[in-house]
Amino acid sequence: MNGIRLVFTALLLMCAATAGAKTYNANDYGAKGDSTTLNTKAIQTAIDAAAKDGGTVVLSPGTYLSGSLFVKTGVTLQVDKGVTILGSQRIEDYPVMPTRIAGIEMRWPAALINVYERKNAAITGEGTIDGDGKIFWDSYWTLRKSYEPRGLRWASDYDAPRPRLIQVFNSSHVKVGGGLLLRRSGFWTLHICYSTDITVDGVIIRNNEGGRGPSTDGIDIDSSKKVLVQHADIAVNDDALCLKAGRDSDGQRVNRSTEDVIIRDSIVRDGAAGVTFGSETSGGFRNIEAYNITVLDQVPVGILFKSAHTRGGFGENLRLHDFTMKGTPVVLRITMNWNPSYSYAEIPKEIKDYPPYWKVLATPVPKEKGIAHFHDVRIWNIRAAGAATAFEVDGYKEAPLQRFSLENLDIEARKGGHIYDASDWQFTNARLTLAEPIALEDATSVRGLPAASSIVKPAAPKADPSKKSFEEQDKT
Asked: In the record, what terms sit under GO molecular function (predicted)?
């Protein structure tokens, strides 16, 4: 509750600060909504003018082609109904800047719309921000096709520069929403990184138009604090609502957690999962709550925790409740060995000339620092119908998934699935309609499962079921 109060206090202060602010029409600075004129300079000039007295920038109805725009302190970029900001397809229209990408700090093209090291800013309205990203999707697939046979799957995401749609970086007291339609992002749609007191209220994200773009995450909350996300409607081709906190040695060096986050009242229509923790877990997660989330049948997993044995980090005081899953194949998946070909970077010996961030990605992490520790997780009021599998849970013997509380479950699934390497799990009021029971292995003190819903397998070497399932469903 303290997190909610802090976020709303920040929002009220921001609204009070912008009340009565002067309006600046970018068309007066030369912007043309003809879909072909490059308007980066004209719109940015209007934003810079508004920054002098904390004003609002608007545009007349039309489609405005643009490269990267930077919303300044005290400025609201208002994208009204009938207005589209259309992303340039030229990568040179997105200046390369320091940021964090997929868990490591590096230089990368700026987003189409940026709040970069600013405060008290907003991007709002009922208009459209369209990344027109297919050209960037295609460039990625071309690169990856050549990389995978060389054992470089892990490098392809970093070597194919693609602009995000909106970036909020190292900023505070920022609002995004108001009914915005966010379309066809070249890479992640809304990336909130190293930021505090951020509100996302009312966004519609549609990335699967004209193709299914790789890594087109919906909303990524990355090593940030005091974040509220609500009233999101998401269809993407990767993680939809995602918590991140850094990758491997670089993420542990930065060591910034994601804390005090509320995600609520949202629907995920398409994507890799409904709500995801990871795979970038290095800085850890603390005090996260997600509730009133609907996940539909195009989404393979309802609730997903994913990490790798080089990530490290932790998750504690995580609360997920009041989820409705309609035909979602897997209700709960936890894997600590996610997508090995992507997660574990190894530079082939024959490659001598490579970018510096390859060395960062391939820096070894000691085993004792590499395994993420998730504990004290509460999941309740979960309704799932038409699932293929209820649980796919894989921890590590040396770091079992500890103290998970699952209450008021109403799950109908063909298979119970499995719970491996878990300790002190408590099921309360679990109504499980399963054609096949749940397999338990190295799962000590799992209590409260209904009779005949589970079987205890003898401890023995086993295949890693998470490895197969994630390689089959790797959408990135």
From this structure: hydrolase activity
Residue 121 tokens read as 């800013």
Specify whether the CB–CB gap between 111 and 191 falls below 8 A: yes
Q: Which residue ranges form the domains of the chain, and what is each CATH number?
A: 65-472 (2.160.20.10)
Rounded to an integer, what distance in angstroms lies between the CA atom of residue 396 and that of residue 309? 9
Among residues 218, 164, 172, 222, which one has the least CA distance to residue 193?
222
Q: Which residues of 313-322 are buried (b: 16+ CB within 10 A; e: fewer)?
A: bbbbebbbbb
Mean pLDDT of 288-310: 97
Q: Count CB-CB contacts under 10 A for residue 246.
A: 29
Backbone angles phi, psi at 130, to 5 degrees: -120, 115
Query: Is the separation of the CB atoms in 76 and 56 below 8 Å?
Result: yes
> Before 223, cis peptide (omega within 30)?
no
* pLDDT for the residue numbered 2: 52
Cα distances (angstroms) measured from residue 163 to each of 145, 219, 341: 20, 15, 24
Measured CA distances, 50 to 109, 133, 166, 303 (Å): 25, 29, 20, 42
**What token pair was written down for 157?**
């995401």
Phi and psi at 400, nearest 5°, equal: -65, 155
Angle, CA of 265, 267 and 269, to the nearest 5°: 175
- Give the largest CA-CA distance in the chain: 74
The amino acid sitting at 226 is K
Q: Can you say how many angstroms the Cα of residue 334 is from the centroid of all Cα atoms in its chain?
A: 16
Q: What is the pLDDT of residue 12?
A: 46
| H or E stretch covering 147 | helix 134-147
Neighbouring C-beta atoms of residue 9, cutoff 10 Å: 12
Average pLDDT (393-399) is 93
Q: Are 297 and 328 in contact (CB under 8 A)?
A: yes
Token pair of 297 as six digits: 């049948």
User: What tokens does 400 get?
Assistant: 């079992």
Q: Where are the alpha helices (DSSP H) in 240-374?
A: 248-254, 340-343, 356-361, 367-370
Token pair belonging to 409: 């479950």
pLDDT confidence tier of residue 286, bands split at 50, 70 and 90: very high
Q: What SS3 state is found at 473?
A: coil
Say how many C-beta atoms besides its own lie within 10 A of residue 331's C-beta: 28
Is pTM beyond 0.90 here?
yes
The string of pLDDT tens digits covering residues 265-282 is 999 999 999 999 999 999
Tell me if the bond preceding 266 is cis, omega within 30° of 0: no
Contact 145, 168 (CB under 8 A): no
Residues 6 or more apart whose Cβ sits within 8 Å of residue 113: 68, 69, 71, 77, 85, 123, 129, 165, 166, 167
Q: How many Cβ atoms sit within 10 Å of the Cβ of residue 365?
A: 19
Q: What are the structure tokens assigned to 169, written together?
A: 């970086």
Is residue 455 very low, low, confident or very high in pLDDT (cuts 50, 70, 90)? confident
